[in-house]
Write a structure and sequence with these properties.
The structure is a homodimer of 158-residue chains.
Chain A lengths: L3 H12 L5 H8 L3 H13 L3 E8 L8 E9 L4 H10 L3 E7 L5 E7 L2 H12 L2 E13 L21
Antiparallel strand pairs in A: 2-4, 2-5, 3-4
Helix pairs in contact in A: 2-3
Chain A binds a DNA duplex (30 and 30 nucleotides) through helix 3.
Pfam families (chains A, B): AsnC_trans_reg, HTH_24
InterPro entries (chains A, B): ArsR-like_HTH, AsnC-type_HTH_dom, Dimeric_a/b-barrel, Tscrpt_reg_AsnC-like, Tscrpt_reg_AsnC/Lrp_C, Tscrpt_reg_HTH_AsnC-type_CS, WH-like_DNA-bd_sf, WH_DNA-bd_sf
GO biological process, one term (chains A, B): response to amino acid
Chain lengths: 158, 158
DNA sequence: GGCGCCGGTCGAGATCGTCAAGCATTTTAC
DNA sequence: GTAAAATGCTTGACGATCTCGACCGGCGCC
C-alpha cells in the first residue's frame, strides 16, 4: 500500500511539513511533479490526515495539563460525550474498554479552571484526574517502516 | 505575548500547515514578508514547536490503539521510563500525579503485538491497559483566543 | 524635538510549483 | 504472444511564490 518512497516522504514531512517539493524531491531522488502527485494521493487516500502545526500550550497560557478518566452515570453516556466534545479545553478524548469509558486530555490555565470544567461534568459522570507533571514522550507517530517491534505473534497457545 | 494576528496565523496553519505565505498574508491583511517574519519569530520563541503531518496509523498497519497506565515497581522508575521511550510504538507518554506514574498511548498492529510489548515491561512495572474503541476527539489544540471557558476562578473559599 | 528601534511595505531577482507533452515499463485483454 | 491501455516517471516552460534589500512611519525615550 505504501512504498518505501512514500514512507521516506512522510518521515521528512513529520519533521517539517513545510519542506518544499523540490527539497523533498531531492531527498528521495524524484522530480518535484512526482512528489507532488504522491503527496496528493497520500492525502486523497487519507494516509495524510492533515498538515498541521504543533503549538506550545504554554505559549497560549495553558500552564496545566491533566489526564481525566471519565465514567458517565447510567444513561448519560451520550450527553457526557457531547459535553466533552463541546468543551474546547479537551484536547483529545478516547473511548476505551474497561471501567473508565473515556480518557481525555485537558488543557487549562489554572487549577481554578480545572475545577470549573470538571464541575460541568460532575453531575453526569464520575471523573478521576491526574495532573501531568512531565511529558517523557510528546506525540509522535508509530514507526513508519514495516519493521516494528518483534512482538509480532499471532494469538495462539504460548 | 501573542497578538491577534499571530493567533489568526496559527489558526490557519493548524488547519493547513502548507498554506502559502501569500495566502496567509491575504487572510490576515499583511504583506508576505511580514508574515514570514512573524512565523520565523513564532518558531524562534517556541510557540510553534513544529510543522508536522498527521498520519493515519491505520495506513501504517496499526489497527489497534491502547491507553496504558504504568506503575513502576519500587526503584524501577527510571528504567521503566527509559524503556518506554525506546519502544517506538509508544506514541505519547505523560508522567502524572496519582498512583499511576505514567499514562501512555500505544500503537500496535495486533493483539499479539500488544501482549509482546507489555511483556517487556511486565517485570518492572504493573500496567493496566484499556483498548481504544473510538476517538470522539482527535488531537486538537486548546482555544487560541484568550476567551477560554468561563471556568476562570482563582483559588479561594467557594 | 530628535533618535533609534520595531514592525511594516514595496519591488526586483531568485526560487519554486504546476502543467502539458512525451517516454518506459507493466498490466490487461484478446 | 502481442497490442492497447494504464502507471508513474522526466523534462522544460511558464506563472506563482518567496526572499532580500531599501525604505518608511509610529512610538518610546532621552
Amino acid at each position: 500500500m505504501l512504498d518505501d518512497l512514500d514512507r521516506r516522504l512522510l518521515e521528512i514531512l513529520v519533521k517539517d511539513a513545510r519542506t518544499s517539493l523540490k527539497e523533498l524531491a531531492a531527498q528521495v531522488g524524484l522530480s518535484s511533479p512526482s512528489v507532488s502527485e504522491r503527496l496528493r494521493r497520500l492525502e486523497e487516500r487519507g494516509v495524510i490526515r492533515a498538515f498541521t502545526v504543533e503549538i506550545d500550550p504554554l505559549a497560549l497560557g495553558y500552564t496545566l495539563q491533566a489526564i481525566v478518566r471519565i465514567r458517565p452515570l447510567p444513561g448519560k453516556l451520550h450527553i457526557v460525550q457531547k459535553l466533552i466534545e463541546e468543551i474546547p479545553e479537551f484536547g483529545e478524548c478516547d473511548k476505551v474498554t474497561g471501567d473508565d469509558c473515556f480518557v481525555a486530555r485537558l488543557f487549562v490555565r489554572s487549577i481554578g479552571d480545572l475545577d470549573g470544567i470538571l464541575d460541568r461534568i460532575a453531575d453526569k459522570a464520575e471523573t478521576s484526574t491526574a495532573i501531568i507533571k512531565a511529558q517523557p514522550i510528546r506525540r509522535r507517530p508509530p514507526p513508519l517502516d514495516a519493521t516494528a517491534s518483534r512482538g509480532a505473534k499471532i494469538l495462539q497457545a504460548s
